[in-house]
Batch of 4 targets.
Target 1
Amino acid sequence: MAFKKRRIFDLRHVQAQQMATTASHRRSHPTHNYSHNPIQPQHRFRQIGEWFTENMRNYCQTTSLHGFSYITRQDISRNERWFWLVVVILAIITSIVLVVVSWYWSQETPTVTVIESSHFPTWNIPFPAVTICNFNKISKTKALSFLDQMQVPVGINRSELHNLFNLTLLPVDTMISNDSLQIYDRILSLNNLTLNRLTQQLSPDCIEMISNCIWKGINTRCDSLFQRIDTMEGQCCTFNYFGGISNNFPEKIAYQVPKRPYRVTGCGYPTGLSVLLNPMISDYYGTFFSGFGFRLLLHDAYNFPDENSETKVVTTTRESFVRINPESTYATNDIRRMDLSLRNCLFGSEMAMHGLRRYSFINCMFECRVRMTVDLCGCLPPYVYNNGSYKVCGVLQTNCIIHSKRLFSHALANLNFSLSIVRETDSFPCGCLPDCQSNHYVSESTTGRLDMSYFANRPTFNNATDRILLHVFFSDLMSTRYRTDIFQNWLSALASFGGLLGLIMGFSIVTAFEFIYFLTFRPVFNYINRE
């Protein structure tokens, strides 16, 4: 007797009870009565409810879901069955809540960036562009020559020429009176010059600033490595820059310039770029700095050199070693197939630039600020590439250009935005999105006094007392590579949801099929068996 009280659920016993119930139901409701006594709607609903209840009872007795069998067991008390019903309902609610939260997180953060490798070979990463800008923006030799050659309108003092030359520096802290601008415009018109052309002719020459060049341990012509470009810093010399639509190399060696950025297969300064710089102290005429030297900008080969670049300063009589630790980020094909609103980044070929070859966030923000300058001044700044569709700003627009230069030092390119608004903004101007793929060049520099005995046996450099020896190189053979991937694809989402449901309720695809089976196939099979 005690064994009967403790007996466990027997599927055959339940099936026998079901068959007995069905036979009793058939005897009490003969089939010939249905044709003569139509079933009332209330009775039909009652039958459907009894059918559904019976199938759910059978499902609870046979399913593998945790706790469901206790709801219909007859060998436990009624209170225990109610207790297990509450537990099952709470488990279902918890599972639904966790699945919804997991789905919300996947939609809130659709992409994720992780470290793929800390031993990614540096020869797979392009060498950075190296842009060198002299502290001195105006050559004294050229300025004095222009002073003798340029004509001055009647009634204007020749001392105004010095102020005109200083105007090419585009100072950001002072505004020029309109009367002075009118005088400068008359001087330029008389000499058939523009402000942009005057700036180019007064700038120090690249070949004169860069004396010797060694690339990957081989002495190389500097004019085949460096080209002259217009930047926010004025006229600068740049190496390995491919961001512009065209280059400024001499025609006779333009065919030797590679189509893609340089790469190196080693580390250490003998495998990188070494240049001997001449600041030409005696040629200083106009500068913003109190010392003598160069400003060094390290940036991606396709990015325009601006304030976002890694910046170093090298001064006279010094030997500087600039070690670069590159980092590379790439995006998977799943990211490329994602909707733009979800991935929130752009590839280099997905948006066309006005004067630059490839899209990047830095290039987009630069052109965005340029467009703001065009809207503000009605002309294009002289340091920006122009395909002929825009008017180049002249001397009369100098105050507007000086004012617009401040746009390039603010995150949102808008002086009216406070810090609180910048912190809470969800988007950048002009629809600029971050890069899906990019290279970042973190740099460190070490400087020491230059040993002048290095030039003792070199007749060309007898007076090289103010030279600068610069080395730029990768510091290691390995680098860090990041991978941007989707947070959850269909497989990981299935694993995540299935893990949550399986942990709490023991749910699986088979149990879902069981539920469908008891509501659809099981009644059909029972009907066929009765026939």
Target 2
Amino acid sequence: MARSWSLDRECRSLHWGLERPPRPQGLQARCCRRPRPGWTMAPPRNVVKIAVQMRDAIPQLIQLDQAKPLAAVLKEVCDAWSLTLPERYALQFADGHRRYITENDLEAEQLLGGLQSGSREGRREALRRLVLLSSDMTFAREVISRDGLQRLGTIIEDGDDLGEVLALALRTFLELMEHGMVSWETLSIPFVRKVVCYVNMNLMDPSVQPLALRLLESVTLSSPALGQLIKSEVPLDRLLVHLQVMNQQLQTKAMALLTALLQGASPAERKHMLDYLWQRNLRQFIYKNIIHSAAPLGDEMAHHLYVLQSLTLGLLEPRMRTPLDPYSQEQREQLQALRQAAFESEGESLGTGLSADRRRSLCAREFRKLGFSNSNPGQDLERVPPGLLALDNMLYFSRHAPSAYSRVSAGKGGGQQNPHLGRVSVGLAVTIYPILCSPHPSSETAQDFSPMFFGQDQSFHELFCVGIQLLNKTWKEMRATQEDFDKVMQVVREQLARTLALKPSSLELFRTKVNALTYGEVLRLRQTERLHQEGTLAPPILELREKLKPELMGLIRQQRLLRLCEGTLFRKISSRRRQDKLWFCCLSPNHKVLQYGDVEEGADPPTPEALPEQLPVADIRALLTGKDCPHIREKGSGKQNKDLCELAFSVSYDRGEEEAHLNFIAPSKREFHLWTDGLSALLGSPMGSEQTRLDLEQLLTMETKLRLLELENVPIPERPPPIPPPPTNFNFCYDCSIAEP
């Protein structure tokens, strides 16, 4: 493809460098265009005169046609000096930065020049081309080194065109920034405020506001100072307006900025913000219009709902870390309210002529009945965790489910010793919190949110109410005593975790499913899992398994290559977040070429013939995974990249005399294993993934059982063998009932 050189009206010296050993050679040159006397017609604008020089050679003055490809120019210069192998040479500026001239160099210079065009159409075309090329790291480096970000920032700040030009400028700016070569903290306050204006505008091109929200999210996550500015300039009500539109992309980016602002806020600010959002019915809107929307929930929105759930439930942690204060009048009154709710009739009798000592003795006895270790319940609640969170749960239970609270606290309905309410409340609070609350809300790809959380105002306390009744039910099923308390808590934790993993959409559905998971069902599931995990260690069986392994590994290899031939859609992952760009890669049916190319969101997977790019398998040098991949090394070693690192793999291949890489981010751990296994098989390397180990174990188990069922050459009698006659005496029998003298 032709490239042009932007050297018009400029005089620069160039250096022609020889890149092959033993020592570089070069030539000096000057380029200029000057009118000469007697000329009647100006030369074409794309032709300039370039002076080129090389060490130990006579300089030459050439006419450079900027429309020619750089490779053609190099060949002409080499031919003038009778140099062979022109691909071994490169142009280099002779003074100043002494940078080598590349195709990217020329393209960047031309497109950035197009941004200065007085024509709107010229700027639009330059921006369209920049958007396509800016995802390339090398090209992005060239653009940034030529003040490309400043030029784009000027277009964004001026805001002369609020339509396609502004959207293209924002998209290009984001692509360049997300390579991580320039810090988001370097952005100016006026620039950030201008982007905020685009977010706050009522009438705006629908393609602009998602990009503006995405830019503000990146700034908020990277710069605390600018994040505070954005928090003060973007009202929460404005984000709620964006969340309530029917544009799914705008909803997702508004939720992304909202979670970024919440993560950057202090605990007190976060609580204030979340209280306000819940008052404005954000939870109900998410539950009805996002989670239960007709459109499928995207990965990015699922991640932001996971972060929102973690941050909201994280507000409970201060209560969990705060012990009960024995001198707090409010907390003493709350404890008395718990006692009175459980023993109302006896509580009423306290005021009927009892002495102070008798009243204290009766209170102490009732607190012990509630399950506290002694007459002073404050000593049990001084333990952190759960601290005051256990007290909050018990109060909520007593106020919102009084009949169940009275039944559980009185220990009715069982023929065996019942669990103590106080001890159960402390243990259950410690059990539920880590199940429902993630310790790493900033994980970039986690999506494990619970739909039930957005269906209730007090989801944690409601889950406690279900859990404490479940524990009472399981206690009776296990016929447990107080010595079995820890065992019962383990079973209840397993019941809650297994049911939450099913992602029930409502509290009622959760209650139904968890009550159906009885202690007997838990034992059955454990036994099934144990049988799947156990393997026999008998020597004959081990020998048979070793003989079967080569055949089964060949079967796995065949399946992996077939999976590569089917192909997979991969997402292009930036340094900040998941993007909507997709590309498809597959292996040719003859297993000789990897074919790949970009595809549109929602489109059917393309046929191999429709993919524009090809990589011969014979050119592949090695397979890289995890931190060894170049696109992971460029992102750094932050915690947010840990999940991406586990899904990353690359293939290095020869491109001319250089080493290039084709980089992948697998959509799932299973796809990562299938692709790395398949590529390893193509390269003749062992398939060492965890998935291969599991598949081999499953096939070995099945094949071993089938082989053991085959009774070849073993005669099976038609009649059972005869019973042998009884022994002649029974002197070998010892009667244990006879006492020895």
Target 3
Amino acid sequence: MSHQFQQYHLFSLPRDLLDTLVPRNDLNQVPEPSTPPRTDTPPPPPQPTAGSRACNICLGAIFVDVDDQRAHFRSDWHRYNVKIRLNGGEPVAEAQFAQLVDGLEDSISGSASSSDSDSDDSDAVAALVHKTRKLARPSSPESSTPKLPQTPLVWFHSPPSTQVGIYKAVFSSSTPPTEYLAELKHMQIGGEYGRTWALFMTAGGHFAGAIVRVKRPDGDEDDGGLTKKGKPRKPKPEIEVLKHKTFHRYTTRRKQGGSQGLNDNAKSKAVSAGAMLRRYGEQALRDDIRNLLQDWADDIHDCERIWIRASVSNRRIFLDYEDAVIEKGDERLRTFPFPTRRPTQAELSRCLQELTRVKVSHLTEEALRAQDEALLASLPKPKPQPAPAPQPEAAKQKDKPAVPQLSPEEEQLRDKWTRLLDMIKRGRLDTLKTFWDREGAALGGVNTPVPDWTDEKGGTLLQVAAHSGQEEITKWLLEDLRADPTLDVPSSTVAAEDDSGVESDGDVPRLPRGKGGRRTAYELARTKAVRDVFRRCAAAHPDWWDWLGTEHGARVPSVLSSEMEEGREEKKKARRKGLKDKLKEREKEREAASPPPPPPVEEPKPRKTKEEPGNGPRKLGGASGTTESVAGLTPEMRAKIERERRARAAEARMKALQGGGRA
């Protein structure tokens, strides 16, 4: 029978076409006829008899009772087949499994039921699976077949020149590609109630949904016949729409796209009337769809496939809510494997026809072969991976610096030191006090050396505070915690430090460095205010430390008592007063030496003419004398006259008050 220029329904393929179909491989080639079986091939597995139990994965595994079946499920053979099946491979018979075990270096123990051997068996089975997968890989990249682009269609061939294409999405997700033909033949069976699909689309506030029967029950066949009027009956349609519903809500701004909810999440929440309407439309659309799914719950439960076209955000309308009709991980869920348009009833019908109508082409073997060669030629060739140049072991050791592996306790200790030093350098005294009351003992006390990995300019907390110029923290460390100011600064800090940028102390001399360049926290301070903290503490508590010692002391050159500070302030005030007096004398001398300025010359006031009327509006009957006198003056002169007028008025009021008091 010729199949030229015919269209077929997916669930009603002709029997003569279905019997001649063979799958095509990735290169769209008809598979070569299988070679005759070898003599050492094991016999076909026995078929299970009525009432017996069998394994759906292992070939030829039949059990007498439940205990035998449970023992099989714990065996290495069954667990190996399960893992191979999950990886997309084919299970092996028991004899083939025995050969694989013999070729494995590590022996696999039997199906022991004790818990002690479970881990060993799992490791052995995993090793066998890894070895099988490694042997299945191609020997070299050059000999491997180039990776072909994935297509949504799977093709079958019917000799001599008919090709049939079907969307992969219509098959079960658990079916391997080698079993597509068997499932296609099983699709021709309608069963007692037929086959139904559910289709839903939503986008831009539009929704369309339908429950359709794609395959009639087996007993409901179209037997033709005549009507009462003697006319031939119309054939029953292959597809029957059982339920359908469409509606629309205002959720998207015109000509801008995107829902209002996504816009609110990306930007601030709009408060316009249109935005409020769109939010209401989104909520109403969500409620309408979920109510519809609840009404169709029984029909959806019986559907073989559920097709949903929705964006990521709109997909939660169907799945992600409490008491959802469709579960999120449902095996029946599918997306349309082709572009779709606005959700309407007509678009649902078009998509349903596209899914159930079989794609047919008629190419000869020569045309198929030429098509395959052109496809292979168009594929990009894999780029050869350059082999890395061998490096000597010494260079490898130098390129990879040793990164110390820290324990959780060491990482926690480093975090505490980092936080402590950050508080000191930022001058956060209140936070530092609270932290030290809690963690000070664990860190080793106030005089504990700072770890080397911090790279700080100072070996103790007092030296770090002095170098950072934190006056309050230095005072707290010296007086409250009694930090030792006589400890030496580390040699690395001494070598890196110089006296550039150090604020001068005025009349306080700086001591030369001790033997070996010895320096203390006082000499590490770069500001005068911090050094005065050391001097005040030395004056207030002279018995605490050897403040003035140069060899083993704190190397503070002199103390600073309250009387000395008061005397220093008085000297500063006297110096300021002397400077002010000198400035006044210089101003007087300069005024006496300079000639007096000439008296100001008053410019004659311009007389107004009839052609040049005065500025501002003129009242009927003329203006007052005051307004007439300032009309032609500049704003500065008018302001001066106004001030003088107000002063004269104030003097007159004062005289009147004085005269009234005398009376």
Target 4
Amino acid sequence: MDEMEEELKCPVCGSFFREPIILPCSHNICQACARNILVQTPDAESPQSSRASGSGVSDYDYLDLDKMSLYSEADSGYGSYGGFVSAPTTPCQKSPNGVRVFPPTVLQPPAQQQQHQQQQHLLPQPGSLPPIPRNSCITCPQCHRSLILDDRGLRGFPKNRVLEGVVDRYQQSKAAALKCQLCEKSPKEATAMCEQCDVFYCDPCRLRCHPPRGPLAKHRLVPPAQGRISRRTSPRKISTCTEHELENLSMYCVQCKMPVCYQCLEEGKHGTHEVKALGAMWKLHKGQLSQALTGLSDRATEAKDFLVQLRNMVQHIQENGVEFEACLVAQCDALIEALNRRKAQLLSRVNKEHEHKLKVVRDQISHCTVKLRQTTGLMEYCLEVIKENDPSGFLQISDALIRRVHMTEGQWGKGTLTPRMTSDFDLTLDSGPLLQTIHQLDFVQMKVPAAPMLQLEECCTQNNSATLSWKQPPLSTVAVEGYILELDDGNGGPFREVYVGTETICTVDGLHFNSTYKSRVKAFNASGVGQYSKTLIMQTSETGLPPCDIQSIGAVAWFTFDSASAHPDIILSNDNLTVTCNSYDDRVVMGNSAFSRGVHYWEMTIDRYDNHPDPAFGIARGDVLKDAMLGKDDKAWAMSDGGIGKGATIGVLLDFARRIVIFLINDEQQGPVAFEGLEGVYYPAISLNRNVQITLHTGLPIPDFYTPGEADPTGSVC
């Protein structure tokens, strides 16, 4: 509730709204504050006098010029008005919120002042409010839009009873404990309220003045807090039309977006407009506001989680900074005395980096906290508005609130909940330079490069040549000096280096025909060599096949489960050939080799099968969901369970020429074809939970019953 307090304060006086009115721009202002910021326009410049004088300036042009003049006054901070005699050196007042307020009264020419002073003693009731001058103009203190008042003056603006009710409830919730109304001297804290008498009692006064006998025995006593609520729920006031004060608001004009009365429809400007029942539109707009608040609530929840993430980052930066500084001091202390001066410089750099990271993250925390506070305040205010049971009052502000909610939700857009700084210090100290190079001592990169990413769409084979392409991960900031490409011998043998350099694409010639090659690449810099990329299996064509009909018939592929990409709950053993899980939920593990062409076959045996775990077997894209059953998204194609048990063998046959997948259980084919129309790059994959254990078997020949298809004539196999 505290965040909502800013929504309940007048932008002029800075206090809680008192008798708020709604300006045409949908902003609110106290009625007394509105009277204080009125500016009187000279009669000679009013639209009526302009028309009477026959000038060529239309009403529309005059209003635009009038608004421009008021904008200029608001920007300059002075309350003077062009062509109007006022004190040009008197700055306008300022409210506690920093909003400029025009002087409450307007200076008059000397002759008019003298006449006014002579008539002053004739004014009755000196405490009453003076009438609003003709041609008065009011400027919104928030958006600076201006409006010339008509003959009704401030009575032409509708009162915001919903806001007034929210303010009353808020102030009552913050009020002190309720006091007894019958104590004569110092009132004691009330302990009960009689709903029939509508009086708060302390215990002594209740026993003395409200005994539980006789006619009073039938009265209902409730706790003071409940009694306070019952007082609030008084019947709502019937809203009257600002145009026809004797008529109640009963309809809603869709075109003007405002409640209207019956007489407005009969003789007013709303006669030809579309109108709807007030109650129906009330419910409709409440639903729209509630729906808009749902999205904003999700953003607020994300913002809270993001703040927790940022605060954790502050702790990690502090811990990493302390650890890094300690290592730096230890290295510098081991050097000769000539390193001491350089050590101070290096420590200064570390501290600056440390403070910079902390400053960036703390600034983001502060910014996000303020935005979240504003969002929470708006949400609480909107929820309180929804509680109101005044349709016309609600509809007067619902459109503006809906727009504000959507606009606030848009402010939590893409990038707002992303950290602007990492918590790592990508620096380390190289203590190997000679003494004469101490003055050149500087930081070097602390980390080795990340594993490169193979660009599978650009990797292909042609006859007995293979072309591979790779790149660094998008978010990697560590510099790379070069790459090392490795291939095996095409027969499952050890890897060997075939390229070392700075290029990110390489074509290897002179490979064996009708062979399956494994390829991988890693990056290096001055700090060392990084990890390998994922292994890519590529097959050369048979001797004599045209370049775009590349296919391997009967070639086998060797691979294991990939621990790097597996879900954290996955448990691998037996050289990553046996897998189980420590979770009751389904978790996904993929093979460490990707297939894009050829015919491939592998099998899996069920070592343990308890309580119907329902594992799934198949193929998947590299970005498949790892915490759901295989095949639940559009990134995987799988067979689940199918009557298998302990000791069963599941086979998967993947044919890129025909672009199909076939499943086998205990050497028996399960249906003709499981999936068709496969294109792209796929990994062998399974999903399982803790009730099952599976062992992988690779390097198997294609089953005898299957005849591989012809190569795709379009060349897509390439």
